[in-house]
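The passage that follows is intended for readers who have already worked through the single-chain material. We present the inputs for a multi-component assembly, then the predicted structure in tokenized form, and finally a short commentary. You are encouraged to pause after the input and sketch how you expect the pieces to fit together before reading on.
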Amino acid sequence: MTKVSMTVNGKPATAEAKGNTLLVDYLREGLGLTGTHVGCDTSQCGACVVHVDGEAVKACSIFALEAEGAEITTIEGMAAPDGTLSAIQQAFQDYHGLQCGFCTPGMVMSAAALLKENPRPSEQEVRDYLEGNLCRCTGYHNIVRAIMAASGQESAVAAE
Amino acid sequence: MPKDEQGIGASTKRREDIRFLTGDGNYTDDINLRGQAHVVFLRSQVAHGRLRGIDPAAAEAMPGVIRVFTAKDFESAGGLPCGWQVTDRHGQPMKEPKHPILAEGKVRHVGEPIAAVVADTLEQARDAAEAVIPDIEELPAVTNPKDAASDASLVHDEIGTNLCYDWGFVEDNKAKVDAAFEAADHVTTLELVNNRLVPNAMEPRVSIGDYSRGTGEHTLYTTSQNPHVIRLLMGAFVLGIPEHKLRVVAPDVGGGFGSKIFHYAEEAFCTFAAKAINRPVKWTCQRGESFVSDAHGRDHVTKIELALDKDGLFQAIRTDTYANMGAYLSTFAPSVPTWLHGTLMAGNYRTPLIYVNVKATFTNTVPVDAYRGAGRPEATYQLERVIDKAAREMGIDPIEIRRRNFVTEFPYATPVAVEYDTGDYHATMDKVLEIADAAGFEKRREASAKKGLLRGFGINAYIEACGIAPSNLVGQLGARAGLYESATVRVNATGGVVVMTGSHSHGQGHETTFAQVIADMIGIDADQVDVVHGDTANTPMGMGTYGSRSIAVGGSAMVRAAGKVIDKAKKIAAHLMECSPEDIELKDGKFSVAGTDKSVAWGDVTLAAYVPHNYPLEEMEPGLEETAFYDPANFTYPAGAYACEVEVDPETGKVTLCSFAAADDFGNVINPMIVDGQVHGGIGQGAGQALMEAAAYDATGQLVTGSYMDYTMPRADDLPYYAVDHSCQTPCTHNPLGVKGCGEAGAIASPPTIVNAVVDALQRGGHGHVTHIDMPLTPLRVWQAIHQR
Amino acid sequence: MYAFDLARPTSVADALKALQEEDAQPLAGGQTLVPTLKARLAAPSTLVSLRGISEMQGVCHDDQGRIHIGAATTHAAVEREVAKDYPGLAALAGQIGDPAVRNRGTIGGSLANNDPSACYPAAALGSGATIVTNAREIPADDFFEGMFTTVLEEDELIFSVRFPVPKVSAYAKFAQPASRFALTGVFVAQFDDGVRVAVTGASEDGVFRWSEAEDALGRDFSADAVAGLSVPAEGMIGDLHGTPEYRAHLVGVMTRRAVAAAG
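Having made your guess, compare it with the prediction:
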């Protein structure tokens, strides 16, 4: 075990990790940030997506040590300090983009990465970007609408 | 907040979203108890074999290992119980072999737990599990339900057959049905497979057992759709723990779709082991493990025949189905191919004679049980496919043939023992054709053709039986449980309301919708209503969430309990205003005396109930809390019509789902936004079944689609936006809210719609020899169908 | 996962030193290796992360117009950085995995792993790229040796990959529906001195060049030129998602589509 430090949601964080400790376990068990979920063991479901130095990464597929010193953002860091939801989180509520909530953290984190790269994506671009995020509840319809709305394209989703 | 944004019929935003959107959810795996140990199950790698011995000694000597459990540790425990006993065509009960917690004598499917290794850490348990080497003599495996009927290899030697039951329904119809086929002008026959599916809720199952020596109480935290059912089954039948010493908590649950109804071995194990080692024991399922341990769905092999007269009017239906039970009977498995399937074979149509045959067999596969729709998708699929085929054979438009046969008068008693209370099937057909823009199809087909793609239009009508159901009826049919639901409505002194319901919410949004109903009934802000569920310690005995029953049964129980509360509150208000309770009206949170300007506020009455200074103590007890159990008088019958368009790439066989339209009649709707979402999700899963998903076993009984690398989950780029509508509403006639349930419709009605569309595309595109393709319609299968002449 | 140490060298020299240790194994992006470790299908003593080695990162051009891509460069970086100069390669990189996987997975890791359904081997072979290791330069034609096998020696590390840039190129991928790896993917590149066609996903021997199509396209670079050609089903992969016959058929279809897209 060694102490591993990184900046998580804007604050310095330290917890113990071994060579084989995954970032997702470091976050969930080491730091108690259980908003990041594990839904598969083959890097496909995307429930564990977090941002590492601003990029969407599957926290189940990198080791905590690889992220030493990095800036990590998890779902717990998406709302403002006073609790106000970010535009993406708010759109997910407004457009009923979640049901059981298990895939939601990964969806929100992927959506945030997409909108950073591509602030006004087309519907197809949103669907393509979510290739690595599985949802079993929504049929994706309202997730896509929520992301379109969060990108300021409410009029494009009003008809759907 | 104006009332119209939060009461019945309003698309109120979900209150549960805040915690899920901020990482504050509390799923079972988020719970860690002080001092907890971890368990890893050693699971069978072979599908069928004699278990000659297990040597745990090497594992027990490894670092951190606390104890290795095998079947002999469970000699005093019962097997996992089956909650439904089907009686066969000869009046004999189904075969019900023991379903042990850990394999006894034999292993019967890949993934069956053989031993359980409990250690201080998860990695230590995993290391040690590798050191437990079972001695297994491999036996031939059988995986197909029809092949199993030959009894060439017996899954359970002690029962001497692989046949669980041979069920005929309705047995008295058999001769008349046969005669109708003899006399028919046209008979259409279709053989098909309803593909086996893995439910794949995104949250894998988790169980944590805890035991207090001080109180003698067991607590099980588990991913369940129905914690009370788990408490009853596990307590009474498996471990012999009385219910007052057993608490089952199902906190936030990440989707169920049926797979989290059932009582699983891991739940009983963790509960048992926590006492045995005097430490909490946690099990977290890995996805690969869930593929071979969560109950699967569907897996029927069916031949259906439809007899018609020269005008295309249905005369009779005859079916022959082999249903795969898997290696053991899961909790409600026997009910799925029988009562949840046979009773729906009339569909939306006036077919006078129906005879359904089902042979359920044991195989060396994971147990099969209810998955979203459960029996009703199997019924709808075969019926709507054979109708489409018949229409084509007879040269009748597929929409027209359905319209000619629709039931139009209600109540309607089907020849398969159920009575539809209400419906309007032409209305939903009209609506779906409108929202699907059926009129514009030809133009879109031409545009597709210009790109070299074959476009098809698929149509479908469906009915389902939900709100399961009257306890006395299901008791006659073999259910070993009641199917009521319960609710306690507790009003606090300052007027806030807490509803404690037996229904569990794992994505359905009950915390929002149930509050909408109560807010509407009392006329208070929905924020003043809290909904509590999922913990047997603080909710009344409930049967849980499945079969689209929560609002129809659980909601009805809540309405009854709230009704009792309001009746009592009116008496208190009458006392305060010195009038008769009959003259009291409750509106907008205010009690007023009819014909006067006298009123008292809701909060004044609730305060009086708990501070009973001015109170009719001689007539009534203080307090304001009531419980109701609601047992429905009938099933509810949601119905509707679906349509979709597909493009087939004839060069690769790839099918693109271009558009999907659903017109459902759910009766009254509490929250249209949530109902839309339920339909969307069902369509997504139905499209998965139709085009992508299959749990495939090889000849040796290995699951070859055991991960997301081979089991195709629908993704965002596989699916279009859906047009959904539920404006056609014929309210249910026998529950207080007039609701029918909406959770399964999408999954039931979309597979035949999509397959009908693909066959239509191929027929129109010059591949007239393709009259059917078995699901999933993967590129390979479609390409093979095109080239198979 | 079994226990192992994680080394994080910052230079190639240190990485090579760390790899001397018995059962040490390089860790590139980890997008295949980490799931493999989770399934306990590998038991290294030490994983040597290549991510912190700046000399293995990034994309640059040489004076002959060739593109050099550091082995630890992610798919996302390649997609971004060669979009203008080698759009066919950028498009291929953009079809690997999903966005989060592309932010970690690397070209060196993909080529060294040589998954028979991976995309990058088609690009390397189809471009006639050169794989530069710490020890030597290996032409792509000599690099791949069948499923999950390459000519790389035990302690040899891919340092960079050098791509000549074709006049036109395109990659046509027919995805396996579940994994989204290539069920059959064809990379077509037209150079001044000829055409290269590399096929991934289809053959039991891994990525291969379809010389018959190369000859035909060398004479006439059009989809019609390969319309009558086919590869034999023998030796093609057969599984749940595609029979050998289906994959052989897809080789033809995807080749035509790649040529049409390269136009």
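Commentary: The first strand of chain C starts at residue 5 and ends at 7. Chain C has two domains: 5-163, 168-262. How closely did your sketch match?
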